[in-house]
Amino acid sequence: MAKIGIAGSGTWGTALSIHLRKMGHEVTLWSAIKEEIEEIKTSGEHKNLPGVRLPEGISYTSDDAELCSGKDLIVLSVPSIFTRSTAKRFCPFIPQGQLIINVAKGIEEGSLKTQTDITSEEISQAKVCVLSGPSHAEEVSRGLPTAVVVGAPDRETAEYIQNVFMSPAFRVYTSSDIKGMEIGGSLKNVIALAAGMSDGLGYGDNALAALITRGIAEMSRLGKAMDCDPQTFFGLTGLGDLMVTCGSKHSRNRRAGVLIGKGYTVKQAMDEVRMVVEGVYSAKAGLQLAEKYNVSMPIIEEVNRILFEGKPAQEAVSDLMCRERRVEHAEIKWD
What we know:
Layout: E1 3-7, H1 11-22, E2 26-30, H2 34-43, E3 59-61, H3 64-68, E4 73-76, H4 83-90, E5 99-102, H5 115-122, E6 127-132, H6 137-140, E7 146-151, H7 155-165, E8 170-175, H8 178-200, H9 204-225, H10 236-247, H11 252-261, H12 266-273, H13 278-292, H14 298-309, H15 313-321
Parallel strand pairs: 1-2, 1-4, 2-3, 4-5, 5-6, 7-8
Antiparallel strand pairs: 6-7
Helix pairs in contact: 4-5, 8-9, 8-10, 8-11, 8-13, 9-10, 11-12, 13-14, 14-15
């Protein structure tokens, strides 16, 4: 049995608390908002996971020292825009060699740092890993079959985390490509916004399939330029996560995109979704990475124009369709 602190009482942090507690681990769930954590403790459920009861034995706290002290591992599950500030406040309470697992997905605008980059920068004494993949909280909290990947600096750490999280309903693979996992997990949210916009415009399955396919092409091109392993982008944390985020009713990024496609402003769409839409925050960073590494990412470019320049989604799709003609795979040569 492991002693686990989970920082972040959103749906994903809560779902992981349920999963890990049912496996017999000692779980402490933390929120910076005292009223939020008290509501979960008192009601025994999360308001955005209706009908799911939290198991007995979970501890609840808003105290930073209590969350960080004496834990075998700490799961950092706050929205990506709060990763740096949360890591900074936890740093004084984190012992040397503490194992921290990031489960948020996002790239920091400006610095272009991933979640593990940010955490390692703010808590230099910790060993920082990542857990990612197609894993909606709504399904994990109900014990539905799910497969994810843990990325770690060394095999021993990866296999330890794998053993902690693995269950008959929660299959965990391991990987050494932390950077590739995080690039895929972040940019798939931007592509999912585009997929939602397409659905909001009523464009159908053909357009959705094209966005997913060309989206993974853009992600893998960038990953290759950043020295990530290309295989990562065709695995669970790339193609797998992209598929579920583009097509699922649980996807907040897709939902926001649908609303924008229907004519909502970005602010109106985010207000309607009522949860953090990570793709909006990763879109600019994705474009900055494309420019930095001189990689063509037309879908990412058009999503930025829609989000931040007011370009109509229908016009953006037209511009994507009417781009210069080209082969699908330049590496495949004619006889």
